[in-house]
Amino acid sequence: MASLPVYESALEQFDLKSQQQTSEAYFANEIRDKGFVILRGKYDDKDFINIANENLSIEIPVTPLSVNTSKIWQAQVLWQSPDEFLVILPLSKKDAFFQKAQHAFKGIFAAVVDISGGFVCIELSGTRYLDVLQKVSEYEFNKHNFPMNKTVVTFLGEALCIFLRIDPEKILILLRFSFADYCWRLLEHASREYVSSISNDTS
Q1: For the segment 113-156, what is each residue's pLDDT rounded down to a tens digit?
Q2: What is the pLDDT of residue 143?
Q3: pLDDT tens digit string along 146-187?
Q4: Which domain holds residue 99?
């Protein structure tokens, strides 16, 4: 019997489980149970907006850099550009959503792309995680400039990443698979003075 494929994160080499520590200052956690789907369609296209709302139960964000939430899919919908939106949802729901979206948008000016294999998701939290980010990014990551339900695409070191806040005490970072090693090492180095806690969430 052929063996089933085994998913390995781009961060597998770091053996993150063995590096867990307890720290209130900084916590970095890889979130594996996420799927990523790109929806392409114009934000001012009524057909695109209505189909997303009525057929898929998601609300397309029309305000730049905003994030909407779908309780049905347990998903976040991120504004990426006037004609591109990123849906982040549990991996267990991703295939069903992708298939339903393909069917729903058939026949109109829209596209659905599954990019789940190309990204790594890191969650940062703790009392000093914003200080860590300030060391490695030019963007002003504070609770006034980066409030709840906001997303921004900016650099982490020299790697372009997607940042979003859907929790008042945490930030999620989406980075390309090929940048994961570089970004993780960068965050490790920047967080050393705060006794970083690092883990891998496989739930």
Answers
A1: 999 988 999 999 999 999 999 999 999 998 889 999 999 999 99
A2: 81
A3: 999 999 999 999 999 999 999 989 999 999 988 989 999 999
A4: 34-116
Same domain, 58 and 94: yes
SS3 of the chain: the string is CCCCCCCCCCCHHHCHHHHCCCCCCCEEEEECCEEEEEEECCCCCHHHHHHHHHHHCCCCCCCCCEEEEECCCCEEEEEEECCEEEEEEEHHHHHHHHHHHHHHCCCCCCEEEECHHHEEEEEEECCCHHHHHHHHCCCCCCCCCCCCCEEEEEEECCEEEEEEEEECCEEEEEEEHHHHHHHHHHHHHHCHHHCCEEEEECC
Question: Which of residues 61, 94, 116 is at a domain's end?
Answer: 116
Whether residues 122 and 59 share a domain: the answer is no
**pTM (predicted TM-score):** 0.87
